[in-house]
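Handout, section B. The chain below has 94 residues.
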Amino acid sequence: MNATQWMEDLQKNISDLIARSPAADLERNVRAMMAQGFSRLDLVTREEFDVQADLLARTLARADQLAAQVSQLEARINMLEAGQGKAAGAPTEL
């Protein structure tokens, strides 16, 4: 049972209890308290969560891609520096 379904069931049960009692204003107060309580929890909808999860997955994939590219560039730099070191240390023939 997810949070939304649980909340709907709770509201339905409270509505059923209130329908049998003369406390209509109690229902408004309970709804207001529940809305205030849930707003403090800083909840997000499933759609918002899925969007953020997708964004995170794409960001991580891009970070991995960039890390691989940096590794390749570092390897090329090391190879070029090693080649220059050999060329500088080798005797030149005229």
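Note. The first helix runs from residue 3 to 19. Compare this with the example in section A.
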